[in-house]
């Protein structure tokens, strides 16, 4: 149990130390206008959307599912909000726009839940539908344009500060709420039960379908908020690039955090570590001076390594060798 | 015997549905737009989608065996990059082609081995493959590299005249050859039979003494090879290599295979179905461009809707198979 978090923790510390070696000022924090600035704060700020989506993804994966549509959902949320805000600088318009977007995201989550729990379609495929069509919908909303807005209230979501960046505060708040809701009540256990065996848990009286439905709605709402953060940070919605490949990053964060893709157990703390590792990795590659796109190679290596560590067969092979050596 | 005759139509039903769908979409086009129902429009369907046909063939093998390959789009991009960079460095064309095919097949082999040896889900392994291949593109060059080699360009622009004034490119010939080869392998070789068997029920296939390991690794090698070949066709089509080529093409390939009637659970499906699936996607694109006022992103929405319909039909079929007891739950 405890060494599930050990390896991701060590990896994160190692990455941070590497940063310290490359850029000695990495850990320096300074306060300017009541805001914290510094390398670590940047990591937190840029990692906030990934973390938020990864939290939703953790619960989905715990039910033995997967949600590939989160990136498209994020793009839709950004598109809807920015189109609603338009040229208005009002705080009210921004709030209404965000509310509409999140309600829409919840509806998209219901749709995914319906396909998975209602029709019983494999989650990868069921969410693939929305992943394909979702970008088209987002393009439809923005009419293929990049929508720029100039709304201070909206900018706060992704670029604002209350000492720390507001985006990471939102993500951490959601993380805390989810941790409370699932670990202080039976909800977490029920989710894990559904992941281990949906049929058996249904027979045992767990409302498996409702739970599956709930996690997909939750994941979609998380994706929506993340989409708002991403677009608010640059005050623009781009249906093509908002949230592109973020589903992969989120899945990666969950897997690195020790949540098994086979479902049935999950670790929120692990997901937090995982999301931070991904973001630190991206930042590290950037500060070392390698092209950002090459991060993909590192991510690939990390995924395979983590999967091999998790794989029972690879573990067996390793421990067999250990025994043989000793 | 009676069981066989009653089951046969339901096996072919999805493929028939796809063919009907293709006829319908094409019919709608020819009724609504003048000049749609010409031989050249059909030829253009093949010319514009030759790489997707090759990709869908490789994907058919993987999905038939019960797996999935998310890396194909990235391998296409990597292949265009290797082709462009190789030609820029002055390599002879045959060497470039061999290098690309070897790289693609090797990537497929590695993914297949990891999936089989360590029992890791195909989805996550090929996801890693996708990251790796795209990253390797950017390691070669972050910018787009154009292809200036004269031999390569002359092959790309060469056309073959067919009777009736219809012209096709060499890409189409290669795509058709790949489809024929796949038909032969799937229906006339032991490997093909074993692929269907593994997809139907891996445990039973293993107990029957079929070479399940060879199939499970082999389909990814085939898919990697097809992706590399598709990448070569794509470089002929685009005449450049770029790390952002073919983003999301894996989804098009999966969509084509699913719309072509192959069961995602594995074990049921036909290469000709996937070919028809690609043609359906191509026709929708052509329809939307003929229509003129509809924006191109409608393509994505329509593909998503089609995917949904076909998946729902598949669910019905799987439930039907369960009832017959053909699938061990």
TrEMBL record, chain A:
Subcellular location: Cell membrane
Transmembrane spans: 43-61, 68-86, 92-111, 123-141, 161-181, 211-231, 243-261, 294-312
Membrane topology: Multi-pass membrane protein
Pfam families: BPD_transp_2 (PF02653)
Assigned keywords, A-Z: Cell membrane, Membrane, Transmembrane, Transmembrane helix
Main location: membrane
Record's GO cellular component terms: plasma membrane
Signal peptide: none
One function term, GO molecular function aspect: transmembrane transporter activity
PANTHER family per the UniProt record, alphabetical: ABC TRANSPORTER PERMEASE PROTEIN YPHD-RELATED-RELATED, GALACTOFURANOSE TRANSPORTER PERMEASE PROTEIN YTFT
Protein name: Monosaccharide ABC transporter membrane protein (CUT2 family)
Organism lineage string: Bacteria, Bacillati, Actinomycetota, Actinomycetes, Pseudonocardiales
TrEMBL record, chain B:
Membrane topology field: Multi-pass membrane protein
InterPro entries xrefs: ABC_transp_permease
NCBIfam families, per the entry: PRK11618.1
Protein name: Monosaccharide ABC transporter membrane protein (CUT2 family)
Signal peptide range: none
Localization (cell): Cell membrane
Predominant localisation class: membrane
Keywords: Cell membrane, Membrane, Transmembrane, Transmembrane helix
PANTHER family assigned to the protein according to its UniProt record, in alphabetical order: ABC TRANSPORTER PERMEASE PROTEIN YPHD-RELATED-RELATED (PTHR32196), INNER MEMBRANE ABC TRANSPORTER PERMEASE PROTEIN YJFF (PTHR32196:SF63)
Chain ranges passing through the membrane: 12-29, 41-63, 70-89, 95-115, 122-142, 162-186, 217-238, 296-313
């Amino acid at each position: 149990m405890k060494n599930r978090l050990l390896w991701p923790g060590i990896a994160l510390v190692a990455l941070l130390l590497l940063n310290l070696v490359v850029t000695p000022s990495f850990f320096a924090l300074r306060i300017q206008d009541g805001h914290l600035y510094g390398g670590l704060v940047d990591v937190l700020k840029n990692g906030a959307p990934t973390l938020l989506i990864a939290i939703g993804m953790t619960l989905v994966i715990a039910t033995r599912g997967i949600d590939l549509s989160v990136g498209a959902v994020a793009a839709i949320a950004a598109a809807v909000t920015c189109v609603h805000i338009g040229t208005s600088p009002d705080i009210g318009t921004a709030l209404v726009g965000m509310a509409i977007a999140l309600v829409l995201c919840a509806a998209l989550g219901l749709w995914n839940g319906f396909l998975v729990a209602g029709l019983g379609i494999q989650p990868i495929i069921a969410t693939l539908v929305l992943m394909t069509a979702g970008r088209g919908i987002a393009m439809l909303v923005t009419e293929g344009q990049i929508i720029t807005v100039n709304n201070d209230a909206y900018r706060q979501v992704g670029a604002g500060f209350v000492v720390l960046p507001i985006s990471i505060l939102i993500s951490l708040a959601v993380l805390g709420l989810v941790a409370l809701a699932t670990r202080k009540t039976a909800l977490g256990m029920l989710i894990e039960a559904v992941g281990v065996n949906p049929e058996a848990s249904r027979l045992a009286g767990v409302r498996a379908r409702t739970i599956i439905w709930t996690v997909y709605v939750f994941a979609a709402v998380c994706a929506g908020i993340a989409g708002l953060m991403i677009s608010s940070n640059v005050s623009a919605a781009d249906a093509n690039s908002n949230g592109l490949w973020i589903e992969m990053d989120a899945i990666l964060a969950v897997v690195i955090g020790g949540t098994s893709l086979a479902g049935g157990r999950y670790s929120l703390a692990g997901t937090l570590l995982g999301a931070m590792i991904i973001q630190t990795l991206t930042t590290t590659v950037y500060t070392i001076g390698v092209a950002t796109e090459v991060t993909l190679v590192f991510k690939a290596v990390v995924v395979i390594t983590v999967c091999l560590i998790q794989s029972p067969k690879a573990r067996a092979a390793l421990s067999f060798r250990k025994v043989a050596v000793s | 015997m009676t069981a066989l005759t009653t089951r046969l139509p339901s096996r072919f039903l999805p493929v028939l549905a796809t063919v009907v769908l293709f006829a319908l979409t094409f019919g709608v086009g020819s009724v609504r737009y003048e000049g749609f129902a010409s031989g050249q429009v059909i030829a253009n369907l093949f010319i514009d989608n030759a790489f997707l046909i090759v990709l869908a063939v490789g994907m058919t093998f993987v999905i038939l065996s019960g797996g999935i390959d998310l890396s194909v789009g990235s391998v296409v991009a990597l292949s265009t990059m290797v082709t462009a960079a190789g030609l820029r460095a002055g390599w002879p064309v045959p060497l470039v082609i061999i290098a690309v095919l070897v790289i693609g097949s090797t990537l497929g082999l590695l993914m297949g081995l990891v999936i089989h040896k360590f029992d890791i889900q195909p989805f996550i392994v090929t996801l890693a493959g996708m990251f790796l291949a795209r990253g390797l593109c950017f390691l070669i060059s972050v910018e787009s590299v154009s292809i200036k080699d004269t031999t390569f360009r002359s092959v790309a622009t060469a056309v073959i005249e067919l009777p009736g004034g219809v012209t096709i490119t060499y890409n189409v010939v290669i795509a058709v050859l790949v489809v024929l080869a796949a038909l032969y392998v799937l229906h006339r070789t032991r490997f093909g039979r074993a692929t269907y068997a593994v997809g139907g029920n891996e445990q039973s296939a293993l107990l029957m003494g079929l070479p399940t390991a060879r199939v499970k690794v082999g389909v990814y090698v085939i898919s990697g090879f097809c992706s590399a070949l598709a990448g070569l066709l794509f470089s002929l089509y685009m005449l450049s290599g770029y790390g952002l080529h073919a983003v999301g093409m894996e989804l098009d390939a999966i969509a084509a295979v699913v719309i072509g009637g192959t069961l995602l659970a594995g074990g049921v499906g036909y290469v000709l179905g996937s070919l028809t699936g690609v043609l359906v996607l191509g026709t929708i694109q052509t329809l939307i461009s003929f229509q003129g006022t509809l924006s191109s992103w409608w393509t994505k929405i329509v593909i998503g809707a089609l995917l949904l319909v076909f998946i729902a039909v598949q669910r019905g079929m799987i439930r039907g198979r369960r009832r017959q007891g053909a699938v061990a739950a």
